Backbone:
């Protein structure tokens, strides 16, 4: 973490004061490159409560926050279906935009966001925080250096649990327009990493179903994919792993080595069978660390007037694959459970 303040300090506004914004409290307590100047939420009680914790201004209307000329960048931490329009509004107001996952709900929305960023000459990035973890960074380095040889297979498994109460406590959860399902809302980080490591997908076969909840979208999905480099893999995701989150894993198999990442946020080494590179220097980090590294990187990019590591098009890639999975599968429901 940086010890000295840079010549310039980036001032952020945060739109949305829900659960994910709690993580940013730790992020900004540890940053020497940025601070939070204002927060906004349609629930003014939430906004004022969060503003006290950040020691900043509170607004009910996010347009009022965007009108603040003292704000350089905006973090959008609202329900998924609101991301696109809020990001476009922020970019049109001359702010850099950092958007929680997913970047948008549709590819058309993502394209409109990218166009707005190009027109405004501002940064647009998605919070793909798992890319910044020590274990995932080491795996990327190992693959890129050729230490695993030709990659043969890449798979990810997200076995999480969300009770029906989770979906019931917020009206947007479990809906097509605002949530999108287990792929868009839970597994998108893991899908992003698969694409980050193995590149684009050539062919796929997929299945989606609503099996354990009364919601509009899938709570369970599986896909078999063939990448353009000929590697074959699988994507498995569910929010039905009763009674609590079971695991999240990412497996890469190469002709000269195999790696399995798991644990909270994929920062634990479950298996490391690569002769050329040792995983001994992988550090345990707090759960907010990935978000910290995202904001640190974006802040330095703003200060130094360069692109961040996660560019606007990066957020679209996982979204594009998820839409291909949806287009190649029919959502089914378990009638025997009355869903």
Residues:
């Amino acid at each position: 973490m940086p010890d000295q303040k840079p010549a310039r300090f980036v001032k952020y506004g945060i739109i949305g004061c829900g659960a994910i914004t709690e993580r940013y409290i730790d992020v900004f307590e540890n940053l020497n490159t940025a601070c939070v100047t204002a927060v906004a939420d349609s629930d003014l009680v939430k906004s004022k409560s969060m503003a006290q914790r950040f020691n900043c201004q509170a607004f009910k209307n996010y347009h009022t926050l965007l009108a603040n000329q003292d704000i350089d960048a905006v973090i959008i931490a609202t329900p998924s279906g609101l991301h696109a329009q809020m990001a476009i509004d922020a970019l049109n107001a001359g702010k850099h935009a950092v958007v929680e996952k997913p970047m948008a709900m549709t590819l058309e929305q993502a394209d409109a966001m990218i166009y707005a960023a190009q027109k405004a000459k501002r940064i647009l990035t998605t919070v793909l925080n798992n890319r910044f973890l020590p274990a995932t960074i080491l795996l990327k380095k190992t693959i890129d250096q050729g230490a695993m040889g030709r990659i043969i297979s890449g798979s990810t498994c997200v076995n999480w649990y969300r009770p029906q109460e989770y979906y019931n406590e917020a009206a947007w959860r479990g809906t097509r327009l605002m949530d999108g399902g287990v792929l868009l809302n839970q597994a998108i980080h893991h899908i992003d990493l698969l694409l980050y490591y193995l590149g684009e997908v050539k062919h796929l076969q997929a299945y989606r179903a609503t099996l354990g909840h009364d919601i509009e979208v899938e709570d369970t999905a599986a896909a078999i994919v063939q990448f353009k480099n000929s590697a074959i893999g699988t994507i498995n995701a569910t929010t039905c792993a009763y009674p609590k989150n079971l695991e999240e894993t990412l497996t890469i198999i190469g002709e000269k080595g195999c790696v399995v990442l798991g644990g909270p946020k994929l920062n634990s080494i479950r298996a490391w069978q690569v002769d050329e590179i040792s995983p001994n220097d992988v550090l345990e980090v707090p759960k907010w660390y990935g978000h910290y590294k995202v904001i640190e990187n974006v802040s330095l990019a703003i200060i130094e007037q360069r692109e961040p590591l996660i560019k606007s098009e990066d957020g679209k890639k996982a979204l594009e694959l998820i839409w291909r999975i949806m287009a190649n599968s029919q959502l089914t429901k378990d009638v025997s459970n009355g869903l």
In short: The chain is about 35% helix and 25% strand.
